[in-house]
Amino acid sequence: MNTAPLAALNHIPPHLQTIADYQKQAKLHLDAATWANLEGAAGDEYSLNNNRTAFANIQLLPRHLNSFKDANTQIQLLGEHYPHPIFLAPVAYQQLFHPQGEIATAQAASAMQAPMILSHLSTTPMATLNQVSSAPKWFQLYSQGSRKAALDLIFQAQHYAYQAIVLTVDAPHMGIRDQERRAYFQLPAHIQAVHHHPVSTATLKDNQHALFDGLMQQAATWEDIAWLVQHSPLPILLKGILHPADAQQAYQCGVQGIIVSNHGGRVLDTAVSPIQILSTMRKILPHDFPILLDSGIRRGTDIFKALALGANAVLIGRPYIYGLAVAGALGAAHSIKLLKEEFEVSMALMGTSCIEQINDSYIYQK
Ligand code: FNR
Predict the structure, then answer these.
(1) Residue of the CA atom closest to atom 25 of ligand 1
(2) What pLDDT is recorded for position 221?
(3) Which end of the chain, N or C, is less packed with Cβ atoms under 10 Å?
(4) Ligand 1 atom closest to Cα of 239?
C-alpha cells in the first residue's frame, strides 16, 4: 500500500474540515472555465441542487446501546471484499484539475483503499495506474458506436487487472451545461482522452437530423448491452439508471449491477435525484443484486442514508476532485478520509456496528 499521502494527512490546515471546505478552496485553485466544468450542471441546475436537498430532507432514526464488538465498515461486492463502501466515480480529464491528474487520484485511492473507477475519458493510460496504486480498479466506458472497440477496451482493462466495467448509459449526448458555455470552457490542446477514439458519423443528407440521425445512431441500445454482457470477460455494471423499468431490464439483460445516478446533475436537468428513487429500485430487484448510488454525497450521513435505503456502496465524484485540485494526491486522499471518518462516526451514533445492520428502519418515515 502506498502510504506516502497518508503520512501528511496528520498535518492538514484547519480550514479544511469538510467536503464543503474543499469545495470553497478548490475554486481558488482553478481558473473560472475549469471551475465551471467541474461545478456546473445541466440547465437551471435543479437536479444538482436537489441532489443535496434530497439527502438533507431524509431524517435519521438512531438506535442506542448496541454492542460494537468487532464493528467494521466492510462490504462484499461482486465476490470481492472492500474495507469500506466509498468508491471513486469516473471523472473525465483529471489533468484539468491537477497536473498529475489520474495518477494522483490513484495514489489517493491506494492510500485510502478506495476502489477507483477510471473514466473512458482519462488523460492517463490505464496501464500507468497499476504502477502507482494497489487499490482495486474498475474501468468506465462510454458507447462509441462500435461494439468491437468497446470489447477491445474491456479486454485491455482485463489485461491490466481492472476488475469490472462500468458502462455509462445516461449521456448519449452531453448535458447542456450553461455555466460551462458562459465561461467559454474548452479543453486545452494538451488535455487528451487517451482511450477514446470516436467513430466519425456518416455524412448526413439534407433531410437528415443532425442529432437523431447522427450522434444518436452511435448510442448504445439494449441489444448492444446484451451483446457486451455475453462477450465481456469482466462483470458489467450500468451507470446512470434512474427508471425502475430500466433497472429491471438491466437485471434481465444479465448485467451484474447498476449505479443509480443522475451524473451529478450534469446531463438532464430535473432528472430525479438517485436517493429519491433508490428504495423503489431495491424493492423490485433481487436482494443480492448490486446497486450502487452516486450524485450529491457530501457527508458521512449521506452514505449511511444511501446504504439504509438499499445501496451496497456509493460513489463520490466532485468531492475527491475538490481535494485533487487543492493538493493533488494528498488532498484527494484527505477528502476520502473525511467522508470515511464521518461515515464511521455516523455508524457509531446510529447504533449500527456493521453494514449488514444498516436498513430502512433507521430512516424516519412520516
Ligand atoms: C463526471 N462524471 C462522469 N461520469 C462518467 O460516467 N464518466 C465520466 O467521464 C464522467 N466525467 C465527469 C466529469 C466531471 C467534472 C464530473 C463532476 C462528473 C459523473 C460522475 O461519475 C458522477 O456520476 C458524479 O460526479 C456524481 O455526483 P457528485 O458526487 O459529483 O455529486
Answers:
(1) 317
(2) 95
(3) C
(4) 6
